[in-house]
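thought: fold this chain, then report.
action: predict
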Amino acid sequence: MKSFGITDKGKVRAENQDSYIIENCSRRKCVVAVICDGMGGAKAGDLASRLSCKEFAGRIYDALISSQYFAENNEKILLESCADANGVVYEYSGFEPDYKGMGTTLVGGIITRKKAQLVNVGDSRAYKLSGSRITQITRDHSYVEELVAMGAITKADARRHPKRNVITRALGVEPTVKADYYEVSLGRGDCILLCSDGLSNMVSDIEMFSAYKSAKTPEQLCRELVDLALSRGARDNVSVVAVKN
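observation:
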């Protein structure tokens, strides 16, 4: 598998509060990947995303290389790693007044040639790109997603809604958090794309799929998507990770 990640502060924000990590685990023939989008003051949001990325990826990697590891425990490992990341951010939020209320989204997991096992909290997303379609794997924990689920607005309306950036779930805000777990099968040439809302708010699913079809490598795909978001003003930080079979 080939992988690549990129992050950019965008055209408006003074700081980049996004973080990402990609770890190749050759022993288990898989990739551990995660993106976090921090919230709070510039200092706090950046810290929250970096802490959660490091804790989540590190916890998973340690489990993968341990002798007690079994593949059927991946869901448990992912959910526990997310809980650990939440705990670390929540603990740090009490250290300084500037850190109070800080939090972050998280999307990531374990990707092999046969499947992707992922968790998410917040509105950073995971997509599956294949030869014929793009599929959003994760469901946003956001105000507008709840309106879409109730039938109050359409998906197109959600992209323009004034409260589209209001999330209903985040890491580090409370002592505990519920993460959602997803599992999808993968075939040859399929790609898992992780992104912060700085991309998904600026680039449509159809445009992501078009970029995937034309890109020859994960790096080319990521750079093309970030460049597209930047060309449209990139009002938020933009982060993308691609892992291709």
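thought: worth noting. The first helix runs from residue 42 to 65.
final: tokens above.
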